[in-house]
Amino acid sequence: MSPQEMKQLKLNRIYKALLSLLADHSLSDISVSVLCRNAGVSRTYYYRNYKSMQEIISRHQEMAIKSYLRILPHAAHMNFTQLMTAYFRLMKQQSTENVLLINAGLTDTLIRTFRTVYLFLVDQKIIDSSNTRSHHQYFPSFMAGAVISIQIQWIQEGMKETPAEMGKILNELFSFAAQK
């Protein structure tokens, strides 16, 4: 196994262990020792690789979103509706773990993660950021907060709309936000 594969395996294990613990405990009640024991990793590994448990969540979510987007057809360039459809498709697949994260009060972590992935996609030119509002320094934060807020409502209301419908809805909402 390559070092990169081993790194991903350990990240998956510690993330799954954290989710398992979050099902029955608040984040503040989870010790690093218990987390590491449940994940089968050393405390040294934890302290060498992470500053916080939230960082584990962010890194895993970023890896999952980026991996998912890479396997999509036309992933080299996606319009906003396609991007949001793909995102909501993945979030539907991960709805159980998202509910755990939301219930644990980790929405800020989800927002930061979405913002990081959005900036990565812009940097990689996977999504078009040529309009002026996209260049505003606060736009990535605005977008992340809005999308995660809508995602939370969608999950809490039972995900009645399909991911494709959510992609269209988000496109309409962001088009409205761009109007003057």
UniProtKB/TrEMBL annotation:
<dbReference type="GO" id="GO:0003677">
    <property type="term" value="F:DNA binding"/>
</dbReference>
<feature type="domain" description="HTH tetR-type">
    <location>
        <begin position="8"/>
        <end position="68"/>
    </location>
</feature>
<dbReference type="Pfam" id="PF14278">
    <property type="entry name" value="TetR_C_8"/>
</dbReference>
<dbReference type="InterPro" id="IPR039532">
    <property type="entry name" value="TetR_C_Firmicutes"/>
</dbReference>
<dbReference type="InterPro" id="IPR050624">
    <property type="entry name" value="HTH-type_Tx_Regulator"/>
</dbReference>
<dbReference type="InterPro" id="IPR009057">
    <property type="entry name" value="Homeodomain-like_sf"/>
</dbReference>
<dbReference type="InterPro" id="IPR001647">
    <property type="entry name" value="HTH_TetR"/>
</dbReference>
<feature type="DNA-binding region" description="H-T-H motif">
    <location>
        <begin position="31"/>
        <end position="50"/>
    </location>
</feature>
<protein>
    <submittedName>
        <fullName>Transcription regulator</fullName>
    </submittedName>
</protein>
<keyword id="KW-0238">DNA-binding</keyword>
